[in-house]
Amino acid sequence: MSHHTMESEVQRRKERIDRGIKVRTESIYAVSSWEEVAYLLVPRMVLIVGLLLLPLVIQNPYWHRVITVVGVYGLLAVSFDFLAHFVGLVSLGGALAIGIGGYASALANKVLGLPPLASIPIAGLTGGLLCTLLLLPCLPLRGIYFAIVTLMYPLVLSRLIEALNILGGTDGIPGVEGFGNVWVESYGILLLLLLWLFGLRRLANEDLGLILRGVKDNDQAVRASGISVTKYKAVAVFIASTMGCLGGAYLVHLYMWAGISLFAMDFSVLPIAASVIGGGGTLVGPLLGSLILVPVSELLREFGTLRIAFYALILMAFIVLRSEGLMVWAQRKYHQFERWVKI
Amino acid sequence: MDILVYGVVNSVSLALMALGFTLVYGISRLPNFAHGALYILAGYLAWVGIRSLNMGYLLSVLVSLGVVMAFGMAMYRFFLIRIRGMPISEIIASYAMGLFILEGLRWKGLKGMTFTLPVIFPGSVDILDVPVDYQRLLVVGIGAAVVLGLWAFTRFTRVGLALRGIAQDEQAAMMLGIDSDTMATIATGLGSALAALAAIVLLPLGNIVVETGYQVLIFAVAVCIVGGLGSWGGAILASFLIGFAQILTVAYVQSHFQVVVALLAIIITLILRPSGLFGKQKQLEERV
To answer: Which residue from A285, A343, B195, B206 could staple onto A278, CB 3.0 to 4.6 Å apart?
Structure first.
């Protein structure tokens, strides 16, 4: 079509219109036709079935483990997206939740003797609470405070562990109980991820989600409605950091070791890149982004910390050139058709 | 006496690190999370000039200052300008730029004791019975000169006045014919040059390592938050508060805790006085 616009003097623009089927599937009457049911179910099924098939299809034990790591990064990336695009808080420290959740789970396992199935949820909840408490002072404020404080905590905590020689110091806590079964290992995290993903999507359309989006778009209006902005931000931070802590706890049991590397920069930067590539604000997009980035990152393992520079480059390119991300683009193509019209 | 003298030196160092950041944020409301990376980049460029290209000290330093300043301006003009006004993207994009520079330099081998800048005047002198080397005196001198220079620049030159105009009320300034983007470009360039200047004076006191880049960013933002974002007077007062707190911690507790002091300073400020010491005019906007 583009050569038309160049040849003729008539100017054209692209018009986007919702597909008829999209409009028809918006209400309960979607169940009246198989076509419309399929329109709704196919994308969700591709995601669910595709994710659940991954561990079956991939036989190589190394890459099998990478799937589990994808799950952890997926959780982290979805939680970043939730905070950034539904509440308006940019967290530059995903490593904070990973580290706190990881150490909490390692302690629950080693000190209290709990099995992984008990220590992971406990670490998720206590870690989420602790992260929320640590971040509470910067929640009443808008602006860059949250970003800088989340950037500082992982650095400070790893420095403290090193300097005070607590929690195993630089050696970390070895001998954490593993899962013992590769299927529990991979399916546990994938189910957890799907559960959180669909749960958050549901939550975003409930009253709580409405308030949170209000906080992002116009916090003064939310405050004027007599709703405490700080309280709801704290709830959102708790939800997001619980997700991150669950991921950290999972990672500790996967590697059977907790150490300072849980506070590493990778956990903070990769989820941001995944979210920007996948499409911020869609919740599914960041998962897609992690599915792409984590295996690439494994392939680039020999480059060490240069990988972070590589994520940063992708981030810059996407944010400037393709700021909508893959998932927003895909959703647009799925729900709308485009045509050229004369101006 | 040790604490008094080294406290002053440390405070002025912090002020030097922070001024560039607070300048850009105060004028354009643009949080430049690449600030620490520009600092290290300047140090590295000067090192390359002196050690690899044998350009001599003065020329290397000037080239490094100029390159970093041009880089900062280009960074705004071609990159940050496209996402201006979108707070989430501003933070992510400038942080990504900083990460790219720092981790790229780390990959180039920027670690360990091998990268050091020479001091300008070797030797030391006793002040109040405390031996202080000339480089530290130079830090204090340059710090004072920068503060005075900025003060004069923003009061007695057209560009400086225009920058203040944009900082106070962007829309009113635009109505008077001041171009917001030009001013932001100048501000980013100045901020980057200040980061480079700080690097050239401060880096001879230690090694050029990537971790310093993250620390400089953290110290700069800590100083700005405690002082009140965008307020210069506040930033200078805050750097003295944090500077002395750090020196006291180093003297009585442990040197590892300098970053902890900065974090605690931010947290305490956010709890007690969220808009910082002198951040009054923006109080309503930032506090919800």
So the answer is: A285
